[in-house]
Design a protein that fits this description.
single chain, mainly alpha
Length: 74
């Protein structure tokens, strides 16, 4: 059984290595990189404006049509 598991592991490793994508180097100049950073900073407040703080938590409505409404109808 150990031989079977070893072969399976070897196949999995070979498949994983075949799927690895090597990233291309960044060939931009320092000025282009700085300009891109400034451009992304300008968009940051717009992107975060719609987000809700995690500390507030979800808002639940109280006093809705719960089980009391069902018992009145019947």
């Amino acid at each position: 059984m150990d031989k079977r598991l070893a072969k399976r592991h070897k196949r999995q490793v070979a498949r994983a290595q075949a799927k690895v994508k090597i990233s291309e180097p960044d060939v931009r100049t320092h000025e282009e990189i700085a300009a891109a950073r400034e451009a992304s900073k300008a968009n940051a407040p717009i992107a975060t404006a719609g987000k809700v703080s995690a500390s507030t938590g979800p808002v639940r409505k109280t006093g809705g049509t719960g089980s009391a409404a069902r018992t009145d109808a019947g």
